[in-house]
Amino acid sequence: MSDFPQGMLVDALSEQWAVLDEVLSTVEGDVWTTPTALPGWTVRDIVSHIIGTESLLSGLKPPETAIDVHTLPHVRNEIGALNERWVEGLRAHTGAQTLAMFREITSSRREVLADMTQADFDAPAMTPAGPATYGRFMRIRLFDCWIHEHDIRDALGAPAGDEGGTRGELAFAEIAGALGFIVGKLGGAPEGARVTFELSGPLARTIHVEVDGRAAVVPQLSAPATSTIAMGSPLFTRLATGRTTAAEHTSEFELGGDAEVGRRIVDHLAFTV
Q1: Reduced to 3 DSSP states, what percent helix, strand and coil does the chain have, rounded to the nearest 5?
Q2: Domain ranges of the chain
Q3: Pairing relation of β-strands 205-212 and 214-218?
Q4: d(C-alpha 135, C-alpha 120), whole Å
Q5: What is the CATH number of domain 6-157+166-174?
C-alpha cells in the first residue's frame, strides 16, 4: 500500500474542507477580522491563504498587490511571500465573499482530486517540503488545512472540534516525520540521547527518538530514555507549528530525566516556516 493513498487522502481533504466550511459558516461581520496566532493574519486571511494555495494548484496566478510583501516582518522566505500575495490581494473581499470563494475552489479541487489515480499520487512532484510525490503534497495540504482549522477555532474561542480521527492522524504524520530533525537539529539533543514523548488527549501516543549518529524516530529505545516529555497533543501540535511557546505553558508539560535537554527540545519544537 502506498504511503499516500489517493482515496484516503481525498476523503480526508474533502472532510477537512467541509469541517472548515461548517466553522466558517458561523462567522459574521467584524468577527472575520479577529486576529489569530499567525502574525499579521486574521481569520479571513487564513481562509484567503487556503484559497490561494488551492488556486495555485488549479493553475491560477496570485493577484497583484499594492505593497512589496517581502517587506512584511513575518515574511521570511519565498513561500511566505507567495502566500502573502494571496492574503494581501484578497483583503478587499468581505467575509461572505471570501467564504464563497473558499467553497468554489474547494469544490473544484474535490472534483479534480477524485478523478486522479494512485499513479498520479505516486508521481514525483515538488512540494513545500522539497521533492517528493503529489500524494505527499496532498498530505501536506491536509496538514495545513487541519492546523488552520484549529487556528481559527482557537482565535474565535470556538469549541475544539475533533483533533483526532483520520484527519488528525494523517496531519500528525507530518509532525512525526520531522521529530528526528526537531530533536537532533533544533533541540540539540547530544549523541546517545534517548527521548520519549508521551502525548495525551485526542492524538495520544508514545514516540521515541534516539540519537545514534543522527536523531531518528525508532519503534523502541535501545535503553531507558534519558529524557521524557509529557504533554497534551493539542499543546504539542501548537508548539510544533509555532503557534505558541513553551514559556507560556510551563504548567502544562512535564519533563523527566535530563530536564535540560528536554526543556531545550520543548523550547525548539517549532519546525514549520
Answers
A1: 55, 15, 30
A2: 6-157+166-174, 177-267
A3: antiparallel
A4: 8
A5: 1.20.120.450
In this prediction the pTM is 0.94
Q: The cell 514549520 sits on which residue? A: 272
One digit per residue, the tens of pLDDT, for the chain of length 273 reads 788 999 999 999 999 999 999 999 999 999 999 999 999 999 999 999 999 999 999 999 888 776 677 766 776 777 767 788 888 889 989 999 999 999 999 999 999 999 999 999 999 999 999 999 999 999 999 999 999 999 999 999 999 888 999 999 999 999 999 999 999 999 999 999 999 999 999 999 999 999 999 999 999 999 999 999 999 999 999 999 999 999 999 999 999 999 999 999 999 999 986
Q: To which CATH superfamily is domain 177-267 assigned?
A: SCP2 sterol-binding domain (3.30.1050.10)
Q: Quick count: other Cβ atoms within 10 Å of Cβ 134?
A: 21
Kindly report the backbone phi and psi dihedral angles of residue 255, in degrees, each rounded to the nearest multiple of 5, phi listed first: -115, 140
C-alpha distance from residue 40 to each of 37, 46, 67, 156 (Å)? 9, 10, 14, 16
Cell of 19: 469541517
The DSSP output letter for 253 is: E
Q: Which stretches of the chain are DSSP H helices?
A: 6-24, 43-57, 78-89, 95-115, 118-122, 134-156, 165-176, 179-181, 233-240, 259-267
- Of 130, 217, 143, nearest to 182 (Cα)? 217
Helix/strand/coil for 197: strand
Take residue 108 and report the three cell numbers written for it. 473544484
